[in-house]
Specification:
1105 residues; six-stranded mixed β-sheet; six-stranded antiparallel β-sheet; 38% helix; 17% strand; globular
Length: 1105
């Protein structure tokens, strides 16, 4: 299907709203062809914002550490056997029961005084192989480690403890010092030789443990122990101290072995054979500094701006090179600037200038780190290191992470050897887009004041794109995106665009709006959310105050008026008169005025608004305040004084005191407020503009085929058209935003400009309204009729058409509107939200806590404060400790089963003699295991291995396999991540509230299909079931249905029920009984929301290929 159309995209971090609007011959939208939404999960941990790969990476690191520790232990056992001390069989028998009269810590101390038996000596050697102490193979990584401060503090404290108390070895300190013993309530002591979370008291340096090993060997050799020979000692220590360098990567012929950083360095944009420079290289940092120096402009209060002079630029550069803490405030002082001048690179808000300008430049960061490090060796040592050497040092520190490799590479440079230890403490990451060779060619031109584009043109000429445009985009068309949240959003957007192009052909224009939080880190997004919540709370408080004054429900504009009234201390800034709060919401009394007229600036932000008397607003028209007051200097003087005393927001103050606007400034206003310039917007713009094939029919020039639209203009248009946006009502608002984005065409901007200009230019006289174009006096009705009585819509009845297309029955609603752009036979598709299904088969197989199996169930330890009388009935083996059981029961009954109150104070185990025993924090309860997995405990290769169990992780259910038995209905077999490693798929179907052993066994011949989270299903049952609207939704709180299409979310294996929700998230049901369904079908949904029923039965897929 080929269509002349504009594609609008509203891209968020978990959604893509899209709209296909049909264009007329001039390329302007005239009709909604189709709307849609694609929803997907954010590519991050929901609670922390951490990478989704982090748990997998940490688990892999733990497995690698355990494997290497086991390998080291095995090598030491082999060494012991090779030296005829003990055989592997003898060692296995010795450790089988793990019951020794003397602890290994006692043996470590006794080894200094007496000869150990060979069994005791072996125990000590193997124990020390697992307690080696702390050592980092990279000083720079050690310096960055967040926990390193606590570790170093613990090590320092232990060194001090050994010196002050005369302990000869670490073992002697651990065994004898009170810090490593804890007291029970009964006065007995417990030896605690291990660290706990956030407690590093037993941490020591590896060299300290090595000293103990050498002393033990020395004493045993002196005591005549034959197996403490020096040759064996050195062989043992070589294995004991072995540690793989980071640069070597994993072993066992892993594809990730070797230096992956060097392998992954990209190539220069211009010098194709050259690797990219380290971001911390002197060339890259100086290049970035010069770019910012050339971009910096000094802005006067009247809006005029100018670039820095050559002398001012040198002052800026000298300031940055001198101090890492250089700030805009310092630059202001150095340049001797007056307070009416600001910097274009800063965002001035309500804060004082001094507070805003405390911001540090952040330039030459690695250069200053290197300078400070080398200063510890020799003052001003950095001056002896050449530019080229600084670049090479950054490259080495980027590509190599272990001290040994770094040292070997640094020694090849012609720098003093004493510099190297200081340089090893440094680290740099990431690369620039250009090579050192390209940077050094461009820098001389930047030093002359050229922009980056001008310098590139000067050195490399016009860069004609060699990219072939195509009808299918790919992530490979752009530079790798490191942020996983952004990468997923861009990837899903590409899928949407490709699907639309397949169905409708190439677009004439693509307009894109990106969410403000796109590309921002998790903590920044969290702060944005908190700020929005605080603003919403304040608005609600203001709403209640306004209701008391107005006597009616306030509008959004009422809240803006009231905020401005408070901020201005109740004064009209144009007249200087006090405003009457009781008349604030009276028609024709006050207006909210755009300081820089909207028709000029397209700035609808709060900092461009003031509250003024309506006559003053009409007289000002579409002028800036300076033009309004220019005929009366005395009045301007009073206004200037009022602004300086009443207005504290710096940007608002600058707008109010701007004395003139050049054409360049007017264009700059529109450019900033109409076009999104954030980094990720440019990424999307370049991807679409450079790689997507556009239709040749449109009248747009090539530069205007792709437009990154600022969210502020779409929000303004949506609001003025009366289109509500209630996020809690579901996901369709993304499609609404996309439709509005698509409508922000040059024609629409022109209509808004003309409309706003005429509204701003209304001149009221005693005789009537003056037409400023003809001089004619008119009535208000005649003036409105001539100059747009309403905010211009993209086309006639746009809002009604949009609402109809979003309804449950768009064809019927469109027919009622009798729109000329629609055919009576035309197929009109409903908006159906598409969701990315979750088919992940990796992750945590089970919870970390292991439980002991017992009598068809397992033992779980529960905090006393979580107990209930019902739970206490499941107390494990009460007959074994009837006294404690009865005491717990009595305490709960005394507090009516409220465990938090009952155990608010410490609870001690009672003794038969009436005295109190140890503190009780948890008790053992017996639980049945419907949702657990058997886990091997201990060394899986040892003969004493035994089986425990762990609960399946709450997120570890991969899918539910649906079976149907004639006359018996539907059955559901849950499949977990743990089932991936099994040879056969599970075949037991859930029986509600029964143990796993009582679940019904299924036959594969009865299998229908598998349900993954976010799969679309059709459900039907005879009885009505109710769905609930989300909190704060404006929809009916509950609706009733007997059938329908829903997305499947999750399954409860205890009750045999699952959670479903409407395609647009407008309603959901937490628990729908699986056995109550009379019909259950599965559907597939593509990225555009086209769905179709799946042919049954599906083939039951194994979890491993």
């Amino acid at each position: 299907m080929s269509l002349r159309y504009t594609l609008g995209l509203d891209i968020g971090i978990a959604s893509v709203g899209w709209a296909v609007l049909e264009n007329n011959i001039d390329g302007e939208p005239i009709k909604i062809e189709r709307l849609g939404v694609r929803i997907f999960d954010k590519a991050e941990q929901p609670k922390t914002g951490a990478s989704l790969a982090e748990p997998r990476r940490e688990a892999r690191g733990q497995r690698r550490t355990i494997r290497r520790k086991r390998h080291r232990k095995d090598r030491i056992k082999q060494l012991i056997q090779q030296n005829d001390i003990m055989t592997q069989v003898e060692m296995a028998e010795m450790f089988e029961h793990l019951q020794f009269e003397t602890s290994v810590y006692e043996l470590r101390v006794q080894a200094l005084e007496r000869a150990l038996t060979k069994q005791e000596f072996v125990r000590v050697l193997i124990h020390l192989a697992q307690r080696r102490g702390y050592k980092s193979n990279s000083k720079s990584e050690e310096a960055k480690d967040k926990e390193n401060g606590k570790v170093k503090s613990a090590i320092s404290e232990n060194k001090k403890c050994m010196e002050e108390n005369g302990y000869r070895t670490i073992g002697e300190m651990l065994l004898n010092d009170d810090r490593f013993w804890e007291c029970n309530p009964d006065g007995t002591k417990i030896f605690v030789p291990h660290n706990h979370p956030d407690d590093y008291r037993t941490t020591v340096e590896r060299s300290m443990v090595e000293d103990e090993i050498r002393l033990i060997f020395s004493r045993q050799h002196a005591l005549g122990v034959p197996y403490a020979a020096s040759e064996f000692e050195e062989a043992y220590l070589e294995i004991w101290g072995s540690q793989r360098n980071f640069d070597e990567g994993p072993g066992r012929k892993s594809p990730y072995g070797g230096n992956m950083i060097e392998k992954m360095l990209g190539h220069c944009t211009f010098e194709k054979d050259e690797p990219r420079a380290a971001k911390g290289s002197y060339s890259a940092e100086y290049f970035r500094l010069l770019q910012d120096v050339n971009h910096l402009r000094l802005v006067k209060n009247n809006g005029e701006s100018c670039a820095l002079t050559r002398e001012q630029k040198q002052i800026y550069i000298d300031l940055v090179m001198k101090s890492a803490a250089a700030s805009y405030a310092q630059l202001r002082k150095k340049l001797e600037l007056s307070n009416d001048i600001s910097f274009n690179m800063l965002r001035y808000g309500s804060d004082e200038i001094g507070k805003v300008e405390r911001k540090k430049f952040g330039h030459m960061k690695f250069y200053h780190e290197m300078r400070k490090a080398l200063n510890t060796v020799q003052k001003d040592a950095i001056s002896t290191v050449s530019w080229e050497q600084r670049d090479e040092i950054a490259r080495i520190l980027l590509c190599y992470k272990s001290d040994d490799k770094r040292k070997a590479q640094l020694e090849k440079l012609d720098i003093p050897r004493e510099f190297i230890p200081a340089l090893l403490t440094l680290s740099t990451s990431k690369t620039a887009h250009l090579s050192v060779k390209a940077l050094q060619k461009l820098i001389p031109h930047l030093e002359k004041g050229m922009t980056y584009a001008e310098a590139c043109k000067e050195v490399y000429g016009e860069q004609k794109s060699s990219v072939t445009k195509k009808n299918k985009l790919s992530l490979f068309d752009i530079e790798p995106i490191n942020n996983p949240v952004v990468r997923r959003a861009v990837s899903q957007t590409i899928r949407v665009i490709n699907a639309i192009v397949r169905e409708y052909g190439a677009p004439e224009v693509v307009r894109v709006e990106l969410a403000r939080e796109m590309g921002k880190p998790y903590d920044v997004r969290t702060q944005m959310t908190k700020k929005q919540e605080a603003n919403a709370k304040r608005n609600e408080e203001l709403r209640q105050q306004i209701k008391k004054i107005k006597g009616a429900e306030p509008t959004g504009q009422d809240i803006v008026k009231f905020k401005l009234f408070q901020d201005q201390n109740g004064v009209c800034l144009y007249s200087g008169q006090n405003l009457d709060i009781t008349r604030l919401f009276e028609a024709g009394y006050v207006d909210v005025d755009h300081i820089i007229p909207y028709s000029i600036s397209f700035d609808d932000s709060y900092t461009n608004k003031v509250l003024v008397r309506s006559p003053e607003n009409r007289q000002k028209g579409n002028r800036i305040p300076a033009d309004y007051f220019k005929s009366d200097p005395a009045r301007w003087q009073r206004f200037e004084t009022l602004v300086n005393t009443q207005v504290h927001n710096w940007k608002k103050k600058r707008n109010l005191l701007t004395q003139a606007l050049s054409e360049e400034q007017k264009n700059g206003f529109k450019q900033r407020n109409l076009v999104d310039t954030q980094y990720i917007a440019r990424v999307m713009y370049n991807l679409i503009n450079d790689h997507l094939q556009f239709a040749e029919t449109g009248k747009y020039d090539k530069k205007r085929r792709t437009q990154a639209v600022n969210g502020a203009i779409t929000a303004h248009v949506r609001k003025r058209l009366g289109i509500q946006k209630i996020r809690e009502d579901g996901d369709l608002h993304h499609a609404v935003d996309a439709a509005v984005v698509a409508c922000v065409s040059p024609g629409m901007i022109q209509k808004i400009t003309q409309y706003t200009k005429h509204r701003e230019c209304i001149r009221k006289t005693k005789e009537g309204y003056l037409d400023t174009e003809t001089g004619e006096l008119m009535t208000r009705g005649a003036y409105d009729a001539k100059y747009s009585p309403r905010f211009p819509a993209p086309w006639e009845r746009f809002r009604q058409e949009l609402e109809a297309r979003l309804s449950d029955n768009p064809a019927e609603e469109i027919a009622r509107l009798h729109l000329a752009t629609y055919d009576s036979e035309e197929e009109i598709k409903s908006v159906f939200v598409s969701r990315k299904p979750k088919r992940k088969t990796t992750g945590a197989a089970h919870e970390a806590t292991l439980h002991r199996k017992a009598d068809g169930g397992y033992i779980d330890k529960v905090l006393l404060t979580e107990l209930t009388l019902d739970k206490l009935k499941k107390y494990y083996a009460p007959e074994s400790d009837r006294l404690l059981y009865e005491a717990l029961k009595k305490r709960l009954e005394e507090f009516d089963g409220n465990a938090e109150k009952a155990f608010a104070e410490p609870f001690y185990k009672p003794k038969h003699d009436g005295t109190r025993g140890p503190l009780v924090k948890k008790v053992k309860l017996y639980k049945t295991y419907n949702n657990t997995v058997e886990v091997k405990r201990g060394d899986a290769r040892a003969s004493n291995k035994h089986i425990g169990c762990a609960r399946n992780d709450s997120n570890s259910m991969i899918r539910v396999d649906v079976f149907y038995m004639e006359g018996d209905g539907y059955y559901y077999v849950p499949i977990y991540i743990t089932d991936v490693v099994k040879d056969e798929l599970p075949n037991r179907a859930v029986v509600a509230n029964k143990s796993h052993g009582e679940w019904k066994v299924m036959d594969d011949k009865d299998f229908l299909f598998s349900m993954y989270p976010n799969d679309l299903i059709y459900v039907e049952r005879k009885e009505v079931f109710k769905l609930t609207a989300p909190k704060d939704s404006s929809l009916d709180p509950i609706i009733s249905k007997t059938k329908g299409l829903f997305y499947y979310r999750s399954f409860n294996s205890n009750t045999g029920s699952f959670e479903i929700y409407m395609h647009d998230s407008s309603y959901y049901k937490e628990s729908l009984g699986g056995k109550t369904l009379s019909c259950l079908k599965k559907y597939t949904v593509d990225v555009l929301g086209n769905y179709s029923e799946v042919s049954l039965p599906e083939k039951r897929k194994p979890l491993r290929g």
